[in-house]
Amino acid sequence: MRIGILTSGGDCPGLNAVIRGAVLKSSRFPGNEFVGFKYGWRGVVNADLMHLDRQTVRGLSKQGGTILGSSRTNPFEGPCGGPENISRVLKENRIDAILAVGGEGTLTAARRLAEAGLPVVGVPKTIDNDLAATDYSFGFNTAVEIATEAVDRIRTTAESHQRCIVVEVMGRNAGWIALHAGMAAGAHAILIPEQPRSIAQICEWVNSVRHRGRAPVIVVAEGFVLEGMTEAHSHKGLDAFERPRLGGIADILAPMIEAHTGIESRATTLGFAQRGGVPSAYDRVLATRLGMAAVDLVVQEQWGSMVALRGTKIVSVSIEEATHKPKLVPVQRYEEAAFLFG
């Protein structure tokens, strides 16, 4: 069996560990061969391939990014897109299955291709941790560690100048990174997409912190919606899947806080730093396990399925289940954290 693997969408720590785990597991099955599609779905529609073997993936689990490259290409668009053209690419290159590693956008495309009859298996990847069918996705743990360290560092400069600092982290629909990093770093308020809050409430928390002689530090997810806003702040256009490119809510909040409280306020956006660098030990192990388990699904020809983490076990679920709706932060989890605000 000849398997093609791709990494699509935003890069995240652990992608190379998935590739390594899949290739090494596949080598245990006689006659199996791996190739990589370069730059995500773009490599599929353009038949841009590279050979993968044990030598290629040696020592790869600790390396950040992805050796295959990535993109936000929509495989249903363009002259080479669509199930018929992709099926032709697979046939011409003797590829028996696609192993798609990605988040909601990538897996939605994988589901549509599987529904069209193509042999596709999914591996969940998102630092946002917002895929419903898996307890955790690799990359999340690393992103939280990076964000936590950043907030720890920012707190010292905030205290030195007695400023309020608003730290923006990633999180389009779900505030898992903000929630975990904010709690770990002892943020004085955490703002997430699932829980709109008024500027009056935010400033109440800020003033409470200042009255205790501290410098307020707020962690906000990029998808947070302030009460009165109709949608998340976006000024960067749309991505390949017609979704707004978010970012900049911290720059909106900081001057508002300063105007309402008189406290000098600054905004810091962590951005792509959360996705870069080496993966944590946890993410290396999880990604490796998912990559190995995905090969089992390919061998079993469980097309349209995806590997997932449930508790400590790796299980098989349908891609449709994973992409049906995002996994949001429950109200109880946010209320638990809110006891620490102010």
UniProtKB/TrEMBL annotation:
Keyword ATP-binding among UniProt keywords: yes
Pfam families in the record: PFK
Catalytic residues identified in the record: D128 (proton acceptor)
Gene3D superfamilies linked to this entry: 3.40.50.450, Phosphofructokinase domain
Residues engaged in binding ATP: G10, R72, T73, G103, E104, G105, T106
A single BP term in Gene Ontology: canonical glycolysis
Cofactor: Mg(2+)
Subunit record text: Homodimer or homotetramer.
Pathway: Carbohydrate degradation; glycolysis; D-glyceraldehyde 3-phosphate and glycerone phosphate from D-glucose: step 3/4
This protein's UniProt keywords: ATP-binding, Cytoplasm, Glycolysis, Kinase, Magnesium, Metal-binding, Nucleotide-binding, Transferase
Entry's family note: Belongs to the phosphofructokinase type A (PFKA) family. Mixed-substrate PFK group III subfamily.
Annotated compartments: Cytoplasm
Binding site for Mg(2+): E104
Positions bound to substrate: T126, I127, D128, R163, M170, G171, R172, E222, R266
Organism: Arthrobacter livingstonensis
Annotated ranges, domain Phosphofructokinase: 2-298
Record's GO cellular component terms: 6-phosphofructokinase complex
Catalytic activity of the protein: beta-D-fructose 6-phosphate + ATP = beta-D-fructose 1,6-bisphosphate + ADP + H(+)
UniProt-annotated site: Important for substrate specificity, residues: G105
Listed name of the protein: ATP-dependent 6-phosphofructokinase
Function summary: Catalyzes the phosphorylation of D-fructose 6-phosphate to fructose 1,6-bisphosphate by ATP, the first committing step of glycolysis.
Enzyme Commission number(s) from the entry: 2.7.1.11
Leading EC class: transferase
